[in-house]
Every structure is written in C-alpha cells, then in structure tokens.
C-alpha cells in the first residue's frame, strides 16, 4: 500500500510548527520549492508531508536596528537587491544571490531555502533509473560511496551560494522549533556529514538571517562553474575583511559543509591558502576534477586578496 502524501499550506509560524510536530520526522517545510521539487521528481526526496510556508508574511520582511539587519527567511533572492541597506552594507550578498540559477529561479527561490538547499554529487543528482543502474550510493540508501569506493563517508558537496557569503559576513540565524527560539552562527547549521548535512531537525524553521552592521565589510565572492548561468557551484569562495582586521575565508562546493578559516589581516596569506585547501575534503564527484578544484581554491583566494588589497 502506498503511503498517504499531503501538501499543507500554513498561514502562520505557529501553524507551521504545529503541523511539523504532528508529522514529526516525515515532513519538511517548502518555501520556493525550486530545490525540493527537483529532488522529489528525481526520487531523491521522499518526504511524505510537505508544509508550504510561502504564505507566511512575517517571514518576508527585512528590518534593522543600530546593530543588526534582519532578513526574513522567505525573502526571495531577486528581492534582496531592492533593499538599500543590503546594497550599501552587504553588496557581496547580492553578488552571491545573483550567482544562483537563472532569473526565473531567483524570482521564486528564497534566502532560507538557499541556505538549506540539499548537498549535491554527480552520482546522486540523477534520475531513479540511473542511480539504480549504477548501484545506489550512500546518500540514497546504498552501501558504498561511488566517488571514493568507501563505505563510511558521503562527500556530497555543499551547494548553497549565499551561505558562504553570509558566513563571511559573520551572519547568524534565528531558529524557531517546538521547544522555542535560538540564535546560532550560520556555520553551525552544517554538520559535515554528506548524508545528513544539516544539524537541525525537519521541525525547525529558519525565521531570519541576522547580519552585524557597522563593520564596514569589504568582501569578494567567486564561483567556479561550467556555464555562467543555471549551474550549481564546483567551488565557491567568499573572503571578507572587517574594520577590526578580522579576515574570514569561506569555501563552498569542496566539502559536505562550508569550510571556514578565521584569520587576521596580517596573517601569512600562503599559510591561509594552505589551511583552506586542507579544510576541504574534495573528492571526484563533480564535473571538474578534485585536483582542478583544489588548484582553483588557491587561484580564487589570491585574486580575492589582491582585490581586497591585502
Ligand atoms: C536549474 C536549477 C539551478 C539551480 N542553481 C543553483 C545555484 O546555482 N546555486 C544554488 O545555491 N542553488 C541553485 N539551485 C537550487 C535552488 O534553486 C536554490 O538553492 C534556492 O535558493 C532554494 O530556495 P527555495 O526557496 O526554492 O527552497 P526550497 O526548495 O523550498 O527548500 C530547500 C530546502 O530548504 C528547506 N527550507 C526552506 N525554507 C526554510 C525555512 N525558512 N526554514 C527551514 N527550512 C526551510 C526545505 O525544507 C528544503 O529542505 C538551482 C535549482 C535549479 C532547479
């Protein structure tokens, strides 16, 4: 007998949380649906109950106080550029958002959904018959990682483009779950386990993304991909420097989680590049080889340091 599937639209945060509690581990929130629906059609996401949060107006606002800018998780990627505070204080976020998919996708995709978009791998993001033909990998209930031949770890790539930029900007996220609210550093959302890459449960809602103001960030974003549009990342780098001389280097696409190197302006740059490369567990599961992507980390970081004049 096939399991009953439901699609429920929540009109408030409280309703969304109640629905999530009722359906416990068999549900997921859906925002723009641009990531989740593709995974569902490919049979990679078998969630039984979808809770549509796209109608919750409370999650669509951008506000600020003297210390922080608060971006609602449902703000669409294409709408970020309409906010003058983001354009003035955090332009690197606009660059990162612009690097996602195509204009049509960015008009539907949300910032919260982008942060939590599913990890990717050339052996996972395939149709059901393809995956069955090659033998299922660890991420789809198989017993071996096709990329490495190993049986222990999955190395699906962290794919979000905005998360590296946000982590470089020292972003925090406010989470709401049945047990209450909490604020964590954005990087703490990611586990490093390619099979279950998020540290939060499916009943946990991102309310807003919180950016610290007044730090005069200078930042550089770069993305390696085969085509300049409609292409997920093969390597993302975001490097920022604030007015306290804190340097943050973040990599995406070369590990199951974003790689963060925290440093100071005067630290040796060659050492920082080595540390960043060492931090990523890139394997041959991408259109570009592992070796090329690791080499490109060095190229991108040198370009970023030059652009930052450091
Ligand atoms: C052709 C194509 C190209 C793409 N290219 C890129 C690309 O270049 N870069 C890139 O980063 N992405 C890309 N994507 C993936 C996707 O479009 C984006 O990641 C998008 O930002 C996801 O946002 P969404 O609102 O559609 O998320 P959804 O698909 O609705 O959700 C994604 C995940 O986030 C969870 N979620 C969403 N909102 C919340 C919330 N507020 N609280 C808790 N959980 C939540 C969902 O449960 C789900 O697990 C592409 C997709 C397609 C189809």
Name the descriptors.
Uridine Diphospho-n-acetylenolpyruvylglucosamine Reductase, domain 3, five-stranded antiparallel β-sheet, 310 residues, four-stranded antiparallel β-sheet
Describe this structure in words.
The protein has 310 residues and is of the alpha+beta class. It has a single domain, classed as Uridine Diphospho-n-acetylenolpyruvylglucosamine Reductase, domain 3. Helix content is 27%, strand content 22%. A hairpin with a 6-residue loop joins β11 and β12. α4 (91-98) packs antiparallel against α8 (162-168) and α9 runs antiparallel to α10. The radius of gyration is 19 Å and the shape is globular. The N and C termini lie far apart (63 Å). The site of flavin-adenine dinucleotide has 31 residues, from β2, α2, α6 and β8.
**Strand order within the widest beta sheet:** 4-5-8-6-7
Classify the secondary structure makeup into a structural class.
alpha+beta
Order of helices and strands: EHEHEEEHHHHHHEEEEEEEHH
Ligand identities: flavin-adenine dinucleotide
Query: Largest sheet, described in full?
Result: 5 strands, antiparallel
Estimate nothing, just give the exact number of structural domains: 1
The CATH architecture can be given as 2-Layer Sandwich
How many beta-strand segments?
Answer: 12
The share of residues in extended strands comes to: 15-25%
Number of helices: 10
* Mean pLDDT value: 96
Pick out the low-confidence regions.
Answer: none
């Amino acid at each position: 007998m096939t399991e009953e599937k439901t699609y429920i639209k929540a009109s408030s945060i409280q309703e969304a949380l109640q629905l999530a509690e009722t359906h416990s581990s068999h549900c997921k929130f859906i925002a723009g649906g641009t990531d989740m629906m593709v995974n569902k059609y490919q049979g990679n996401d078998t969630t039984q109950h979808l809770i549509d949060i796209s109608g919750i107006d409370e999650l669509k606002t951008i506000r600020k106080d003297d210390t922080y800018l608060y971006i609602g998780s449902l703000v669409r990627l294409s709408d970020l550029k309409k906010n003058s505070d983001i354009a003035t204080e955090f332009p690197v976020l606009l660059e990162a958002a612009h690097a996602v998919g195509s204009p049509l996708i960015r008009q539907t995709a949300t910032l919260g959904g982008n942060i939590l978009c599913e990890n990717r791998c050339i052996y996972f993001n395939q149709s059901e018959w393809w995956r069955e033909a090659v033998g299922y990998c660890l991420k789809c209930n198989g017993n071996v990682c096709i990329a490495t031949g190993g049986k222990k770890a999955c190395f699906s790539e962290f794919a979000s483009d905005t998360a590296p930029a946000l982590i470089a900007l020292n972003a925090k996220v406010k989470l709401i779950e049945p047990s209450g609210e909490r604020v964590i550093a954005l990087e703490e959302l990611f586990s490093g386990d390619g099979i279950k890459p998020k540290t939060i449960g499916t009943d946990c809602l991102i309310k807003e993304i919180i950016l610290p103001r007044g730090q005069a960030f200078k930042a550089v974003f770069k993305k390696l991909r085969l085509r300049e549009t409609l292409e997920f990342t093969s390597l993302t780098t975001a490097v920022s420097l604030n007015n306290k001389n804190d340097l943050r280097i973040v990599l995406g696409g070369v590990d199951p989680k974003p790689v963060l190197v925290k440093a100071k302006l005067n630290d040796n740059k060659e050492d920082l590049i080595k540390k960043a490369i060492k931090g990523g567990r890139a394997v041959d599961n991408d259109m570009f080889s592992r070796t090329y992507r690791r080499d490109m980390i060095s190229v991108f970081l040198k370009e970023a340091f030059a652009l930052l004049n450091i």
